[in-house]
């Protein structure tokens, strides 16, 4: 159903760091004409591209629209809702809004805590809550959250999995900030 979108070319452009090309490929797409789940995938990719380009308002608008769609399709307690809330929080973190990000992440965390099979998302949200606490100068809370995220990732993937790098990077940022 998304042949016109050519997911691979959008994904390749994002992987190359060419958010402008990804966004160009997405711009001409008639989102509302797509089936709901394809619209979800397209909006997620568009929000990623907008965030990568530093277009916080556009990314927020895209992901807010996506949040409404996912809540309508899946209900407000589905792990896909948590993933969109996480992405909205990343834009807030990029802008230095630690409290706004943490509020979104707290809602996301409450959703994934209840869901099964969401270890990776749970660890990502825990890491991002640690980031938000660090930005808010709540270093003890940040350390606690990041250590929890590290433990989640280690149980889910093992200590040598590449996804550990994200959490360890945030722990390093915390050490620099709290010195």
Features of this protein?
179 residues; mainly alpha; 77% helix
Sum this structure up briefly:
By secondary structure, the protein is an all-alpha fold. It is built from 9 helices and no strands.
Provide a descriptive summary of the structure in words.
- The chain has 179 residues and is mainly alpha-helical.
- The protein is 77% helix and 0% strand.
- The radius of gyration is 17 Å and the shape is globular.
- Residues 1-5 have low confidence and may be disordered.
| Low-pLDDT ranges | 1-5
Element-by-element helix/strand order? HHHHHHHHH
| DSSP strand content | under 5%
Mean pLDDT: 85
Largest sheet entry: none
Task: Report, as a whole number of angstroms, the end-to-end distance.
Answer: 52 Å
Per-chain topology:
Blueprint: H1 7-15, H2 19-27, H3 36-52, H4 56-74, H5 79-94, H6 98-114, H7 119-135, H8 139-157, H9 164-178
Helix pairs in contact: 1-2, 2-3, 3-4, 4-5, 5-6, 5-7, 6-7, 7-8, 7-9, 8-9
């Amino acid at each position: 159903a998304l042949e016109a979108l050519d997911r691979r070319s959008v994904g390749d452009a994002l992987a190359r760091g060419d958010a402008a090309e990804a966004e160009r490929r997405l711009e001409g797409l008639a989102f509302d004409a797509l089936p709901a789940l394809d619209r979800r995938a397209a909006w997620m990719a568009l929000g990623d591209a907008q965030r990568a380009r530093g277009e916080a308002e556009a990314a927020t608008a895209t992901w807010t629209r996506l949040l409404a769609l996912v809540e309508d399709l899946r209900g407000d307690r589905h792990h896909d809702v948590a993933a969109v809330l996480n992405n909205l929080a990343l834009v807030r973190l990029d802008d230095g809004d630690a409290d706004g990000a943490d509020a979104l992440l707290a809602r996301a965390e409450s959703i994934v805590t209840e869901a099964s099979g969401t270890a990776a998302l749970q660890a990502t949200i825990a890491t991002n809550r640690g980031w938000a606490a660090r930005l808010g100068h709540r270093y003890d809370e940040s350390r606690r959250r990041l250590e929890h995220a590290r433990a989640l990732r280690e149980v889910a993937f093992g200590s040598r999995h590449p996804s550990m790098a994200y959490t360890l990077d945030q722990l390093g940022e915390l050490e620099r900030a709290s010195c």
